Amino acid sequence: MAAKDVKCDMLSHVSKRYESKPRDPDSVWTCVNSPDLPPFDLQPPNKKPGHFYYGLRIVTGDQREADAHDTAVYVRLEGASHCTGDIRIGQEDGLWTIFKEYFGTSTYDDIIIESSAELQVEVFTVGLKFRYPSSIAAKNNWYVDFMQVHDLQSTSGEPKTFSCYHWIGQGTNEVSCTSRNATWKEIQDNPVLVKQRSDQLKKRREEYKWKQYSDLGYPSSIDDVTNDTIPLDEEFERTKQEHFLGTLAKNQIVGALTGIKVFLVQAFEKLTGLSLSEDKSMTTLDKYEDFTLRIKSINKDEINVSGAFSVHEGYRWVSDVEFGRQVLNGVNPHIIRRCTSLPQYFPVTQELIAGVLGADLDKEMKDGRVYIVDLSEIMDGLQCRDGCYCPAPTCLLHVNRMGKLVPIAIQLKRKPGDDNPIFLPSDTWMDWLMAKIYFKSAEAQFHQLSTHFNSCHATMETYHVATKRNLPDSHPVSRLLLPHTRYTTAINTAARDKLVGDGGVIDQAFSIGGEGKKECFRRANSKHNVMDSHIMSSMRERGVDDSALLPGYHYRDDGTEIWKAIESFVTSIINIHYKSDEDVVGDKEIQEWAADMHDNGFPAFREVSAGRGFPKSIDSKNSLIDTCTLIMFTGSAQHAAVNFGQFEIYGYVPNAPFALHEPPPTKKGQTDIDFILRALPKSQTTLLSMTLVSSLVQHSSDEVFLGGFPKHWYTEGEEVAAEKKFLNNLKTLKEKLTKRNESLEVPYPYMLPSRIPNSITI
């Protein structure tokens, strides 16, 4: 039966400002809009017999320009039996909100309405009517945090809260919200909620269409989007946008992004006093340290937050122990594998390595003390920019008797031969240093393209688009995932244009810029597995899950703790809404979500080999819990681990250069300091790469860290209790890891819950 129209009138309206809780830099609750609001205390002036009175509270966000400027606001309240129609709120006596202090930034508006019938509100719609046609109107967008309905017939009882957290504006002039999170099965017999979900998803599928990258094998992204046409909810908020642009300007990278190197060079010379008028090789390694110190000085506040220490200090970067530490706990920590047998193209023998290893190689492999990082297949033969070279290395590592992981053999090309020596720690100091630099150069380029952009940025956008297309806001899985995809589409849109796109930073700063970059993407994507970020299965599959055999692997240890905390929270939420595996199988929205991800999100993966992409369907609670945990971990902890240590690793260019200007030596004994200096990036390329990574490690002032939720993201008792338990677990874990870090020579801060952004925002 269709809901009856009910006559409603607004009786009174009061607007007041609120103060958000200040940011606590030591709390995982950071930067969450949690206004302390007083009780609703308006009362109807004169009650009429047979009429019903309701108090509405609408809370506008504290973002810059969140106010409903120069518009008329309306609301619509709908239940099973009654619908109010549009109730005009933001206009009195024909005046638009430009003349009233209503619905301003950081305000709550309390309204009393009079109804001719009793309302059981299940859907609360807020919308805008614009004073001018959209073709000439200014960008008048309104951000609504949440709404509440107070039943004024009763003096007791809690208000019904409708969580919103959406922009409303041109192209999205209204948003409809429900007061509880529910699966399809829980609402399928309620026609009001069924229609609300159906209407929301129909609009979303128009906004969020798939774009597939068949040539490079990327996971699919949102289609036909630029920085100017991105959906309203995906845009950077003003605070984030200003910080992002300010960071780029401060680092003088804007000129480089557009190819104007003259601007970049002149600005840096003026700022630092270093001469870069010619793009030439450095004369000493100390010159690179000058760059590091100047960039750190420019960004001292942000870099200090991100970097644990400086590898250039005391020439720490040249040591084998530091090399091993970076393999385990640098920005590419999940490519090391236990080595039980050597590949044929890497002919390390007992005789060759006896003097280095001091033990039997076969026995050490059997005992779990030998590990390998093999980039030779992906990096072999990639086309490089003119005058640049990229090795295709394989590195063998060993856990020594002091429990330290150290490199023991490095081969720089894939095909063995007399012109491809295996370098050893027993070679000359310069030969061995050169081999480590060349290995790190290949690893750095692979890291940015595959580990960082593809496995984190691109993959999380795929999850986000599928979620927006198939799960309504009130679905408990959507509620779990959306905090972990905030800003991801916006940052990826910029990255595809300025970073990984044709003529972007990578084409200018990397050896494999241009066609080599594209081929690297193709090869990496041909081997990509969405389970690579599943830290529990990844550790087992790579044979690195035993802390007794491989000590000091803080990425593994801290990541496991974070995974378990997220998994516990996900389990609590899923158990509230699904009582059996059959409930999961019968949730048509979840099954459509999985099928869309499989068919359209990861189309390049489904035909190559089973188990690499997303499952076609989800058949159990455990599978759903595991999938949600994987997505949330990838967008938060995994990205934090592979991104925010970049200045530590790349901020001193000789440690891990993005480009090399000499081919790998074909014989031992040919390397000296002059060769290394000729091989390392020249001055202007050094500046470009350093300003890039110093920009990538910075948090904006509106960053939300793991465990941070808006005030009414969850509104019902069991969910709120699960949220609080999650936050308490993270606080306990933060204390544990902080205490552990105090005892480490080199702390590992990147998986502290208070350092893990909820989502990929940079």
TrEMBL record:
GO terms for molecular function: metal ion binding; oxidoreductase activity, acting on single donors with incorporation of molecular oxygen, incorporation of two atoms of oxygen. It comes from the Eukaryota. Signal peptide: none annotated. Residues 183-762 form the Lipoxygenase domain. The keyword Oxidoreductase applies. Residues 52-182 form the PLAT domain. Keywords: Dioxygenase, Lipid metabolism, Metal-binding, Oxidoreductase. Pfam families: Lipoxygenase. InterPro entries: LipOase, LipOase_C, LipOase_C_sf, LipOase_CS, PLAT/LH2_dom, PLAT/LH2_dom_sf. GO terms for biological process: lipid oxidation. This is Lipoxygenase domain-containing protein.
